Amino acid sequence: MNSIQFTQIEPQQLKEEIASAVKGQLQNFFNEFKHLQPDEWLTREDVAKLLKVSISTVNNWKKAEKLISYGIGNRVYFRRSEVERCLQPLK
User: Fold this and answer.
1) 3-state secondary structure 7-74
2) Is 90 helix (H, G, I), strand (E, B) or coil?
3) CB 78 within 8 A of CB 70
4) What CA–CA distance (Å, rounded) separates 7 from 29?
5) Could you give the dihedral angle defined by the CA atoms of residues 3, 8, 13 and 27, in that order, rounded to the nearest 10 degrees?
6) Where along the chain do its domains lie?
7) Global model pTM greater than 0.85
8) At what angle do helices 55-63 and 44-51 cross, to 10 degrees?
9) 59 neighbors 44 (Cβ within 8 angstroms)
10) Cβ–Cβ under 8 Å, residues 48 and 58
11) Which of 21, 36, 61, 66 has the fewest CB atoms below 10 angstroms from its CB?
């Protein structure tokens, strides 16, 4: 059984303890919230600008399945997170 005990504590110290606990909880909330944000959709032009390459290079990477693409009608879209994930570290 949990019980609450009050001890003599300075008001400033109590304030700091509460602020520290709230800050920790808010940090946890924001970290979880970041993962829940919807993914941004990019066009071929957006991907080309982001990676500083030509649109034909984006098309070649798409055909080579280096980039995963999605389509609606004649439109081609890429998920920003997947484009960023395709970047590989150089040795």
Assistant:
1) CCCCHHHHHHHHHHHHHHHHHHHHHHHHHHCCCCEECHHHHHHHHCCCHHHHHHHHHCCCCCCEEECC
2) coil
3) yes
4) 30
5) 0
6) 10-38, 41-86
7) no
8) 110
9) yes
10) yes
11) 36
Distance of alpha carbon 32 from alpha carbon 40, whole angstroms:
18
Instruction: With a cut of 90, say whether residue 90 has pLDDT above it.
Output: no
What pLDDT is stored for residue 2 in this prediction? 77
Could you tell me the CA-to-CA distances from 30 to 25, 26, 35 in Å, in that order? 9, 6, 9
What residues contact 57, with CB distance under 8 A and at least 6 apart?
A: 48
Backbone angles phi, psi at 69, to 5 degrees: -115, 160
Please report the sign of the dihedral spanned by the C-alpha atoms of residue 88, residue 86, residue 42, residue 37. negative
